[in-house]
Amino acid sequence: MNNLWDDSLSGFWSAWIIVLTLGSIAFAFWILYANRKTDKVPDADGNVETTGHAADEIEEYDNPLPRWWFQLYVATIVFSLGYLLLYPGLGNFTGLLGWTQEGQWEEEVARAEERFTPIFAQYQEIPIPELARDEEAMLVADRIYQNNCAVCHGANAQGGYGFPNLTNDDWLYGGEPEQIMTSLVRGRNGLMPSFQTLGANNIENVTQYVLSLSDLEHEADRAEQGAAVYASVCAACHMPDGSGNQALGAPNLTNDIWLYQMPGQSVADSVRQTLRNGRNGHMPAQEAYIGAERVHLVAAYVYSLRFRD
Amino acid sequence: MSDKIPARDVTPDPVGHHEPRAVVQQEMYASRRHIYVREIKGFFQRLRRCANWLLMLAFFVTPWIQWDGRPLIWFDLPGREFHIFAATFYPQEFILLSWLLIICAFGLFFITVFAGRVWCGYTCPQSVWTFLYIWVEHRLEGSRNRRIKLDRQPMNLDKAWRKTAKHIIWLAIALATGVTFVGYFTPIRELVVELPTLQAHGWAYFWSGFFLVFTYLNAGWLREQVCIYMCPYARFQGVMFDADTLIVSYDEARGEPRGSRKKSLSHQQAREAGYGDCIDCDLCVQVCPTGIDIRDGLQYECITCAACIDACDSVMDRMNYPRGLIRYTTENALEGKPTHILRPRLMGYLVALLVMIGLFVWALSDRMPLDFEVERERGQLYQMTRDGRISNVFSLTLRNQDREDHEFRLEVSGLPGLEIDPDTLRVPAGASRRFAVQVTADAEVLELPSHPIQLNVQSQQNERIALERDTRFIGEARR
């Protein structure tokens, strides 16, 4: 078995377990036989052997075990030996049946696949915009989302610091079914390079210009100086008017949505930090983890968020 | 004499005295002697038969009755739903089952203190089915004497068909029992179609077969051995007995010395001739389903079925003696002492029983057909909205355990100006739904990094269905 962890024991400990286990069984068997009585004939005086225990003048006979009891005891020993032969239990011996926990898990996964594959296959036939309105399918998709996506994008899909909000209509890479599918299947890598080289003054000027793009409070003359730098350095990705570019994943700078704004942080600080240090947003490709059918469902789920009241 | 394990006197001999005791080969494990129970009529047997019929009827008919389109009682194990009359219970409410079992236990203790082992004689399924099987046996093989004779005969045609017919009917009853039992777990109307057409689930066959085999073995073959050797109740009911407990008892003072006599002797004359009232007819032994002789005194084998009372009363009537030589009485009454029925021990059990019933009824009426769980969002503690407010996300799980769909109104309290979105949650009947809800607060009201808040759901359909959960709102402390 290809294990990440090699859980086999070294020869000595394996033997130690085998000796202990079989020794205990042999000991139990010996106790049973050593104390076995077969007859209970009274002696010449007619007295039957007693254990010597007495309570309230009632003495206890020293009788053999009832035969069925004795046989049951023997049967448990036979059972345990049979069990140890079939299942792992004796050190590194894996048992004749070759049973493992991992094998059992794989079996269960296979059973689940068998059960759910037709359901997912059925959903995969349905185009995303239609699937997104199927209540049943979205209940299933919600589970997949919660298990795989919620850790970054949040239980309510509203994102967080560095993780895009999926419930509004501002899309880094586009919110149409094909674009969502691409994000899920291939993943995304959003790279904003560091512009430390522009120098502190230019960074401040560009920051003021970016604030002006979304009508935030800014220093007008600095913004004016920043516009020139923006046009030569930033416009290539964020477009001359700051509306962003979904082909590159360059965010729109003219609205009030700021992916990298920490709670309590001002927009200006956030933009400054972005310009100085750059940003690197990474959306992992999901298909390899959850398979094409589930990706299709999750895409429909993300698409469905726009219908939420 | 019954053939219990014979008692042996093991009193130590007086010092220096060595007289050998009689040599008795001790047989430690008495093999079973078949008990041929004589059928007897009488008041208590009518009472018992009535109880048996009622219980049988309840058992066999209940699964067939429909309520709201589903069986009246249906333990739907795969669906994890338990439909009992109009209510549906879920595994989360298993505490109710423990209340119920406690009530049953106290009920049993109470009745045992009051009237001994009457549960066994009149209502225990083991007795009920055994009596039914004996009834069948009697119809096919004849009375007690004929049955004994029949069993001693070598096999012949008459014996063969009677025995065969008996076992077939026994097995038929066992089959009906097994199928009915499974019918409590899977709707019986479908089950009786699926079973013979080999469409039922494998477990349905297994459990029908299991209960078929064990009904047949228990009621047909093991009978009183279950009561004597296997039933744990027989072992501990003794601790609940006291001198005021009603027991089936032979009035030794009146009956002894026993002996047969001419029937012409009147009661008075028999007394004068030195006879007690017991004519030693042995009928009380012949009718006993556990094969004991009640005249040996109270024995743990006695299941208080009162067959011996009816037998003795019928004999007393024939002899023109007063009834009640064997009767329900107490140890104190037998000794001529006053009997206290309402004694502290009985009242204690009664109070415990009533308290338990009260608690159960309260728990049942207070039962909320709703489960509501609140979890904080795991990804992040809090977020800031675009307009500068602080938001927390909670994962709510609502399980609607009612039989109708509910729309719940969600409210939040604990801080001024809290808002919640969404504020209505729809959960269909019997379903469990998870919702991500966002609670927002103005940053100014947050004086601490963490404030206790309450989330409250209230059904729009039934105002009684409402639950509140405590959780915390996390934000930045106001600087």
CATH fold type of the largest domain in chain A:
Cytochrome Bc1 Complex, Chain D, domain 2
Low-confidence stretches of chain B: 12-26
Low-confidence stretches of chain A: none
Distance from N terminus to C terminus of chain A (CA atoms, Å) equals 51 Å
Total DSSP E strands of chain A:
4
Name its key features.
heterodimer, A: 309 residues, mainly alpha, Cytochrome Bc1 Complex, Chain D, domain 2, two-stranded antiparallel ribbon, two-stranded antiparallel sheet, 12 helices, 4 strands, elongated, B: 479 residues, alpha+beta, Immunoglobulin-like, 5-stranded antiparallel β-sheet, 4-stranded antiparallel β-sheet, 16 helices
Describe this structure in words.
The complex is a heterodimer of chains A (309) and B (479). In chain A, 52% of the residues lie in helices and 6% in strands. Chain A contains twelve helices and four strands, in the order H-E-E-H-H-H-H-H-H-E-H-H-H-H-E-H. Chain A has a two-stranded antiparallel ribbon with strand order 1-2. Chain A has a two-stranded antiparallel sheet with strand order 3-4. In chain A, helix 1 packs antiparallel against helix 2 (67-86) and helix 3 (101-125) packs parallel to helix 12. The mean pLDDT of chain A is 90. Chain B is α+β, with helices and mostly antiparallel strands and 479 residues long. Chain B folds into two domains: 36-367, no CATH class; 370-474, Immunoglobulins (Immunoglobulin-like). Chain B contains 16 helices and 16 strands. In chain B, the strands form five sheets. In chain B, strands 8, 9, 10, 12 and 14 form a five-stranded antiparallel beta sheet that branches. Chain B has a four-stranded antiparallel beta sheet with strand order 13-11-15-16, with no helix packed on it. Chain B has a three-stranded antiparallel beta sheet with strand order 3-4-5, with no helix packed on it. Chain A binds chain B through residues 40, 42, 45-48, 50, 57-59, 61, 63, 66, 139, 142, 146, 150-158, 160-161, 256-257, 261, 263-264, 309, and chain B through 10-12, 20-26, 28-29, 377-380, 382-384, 386, 390, 393, 395, 422, 433-434, 436-438, 476.
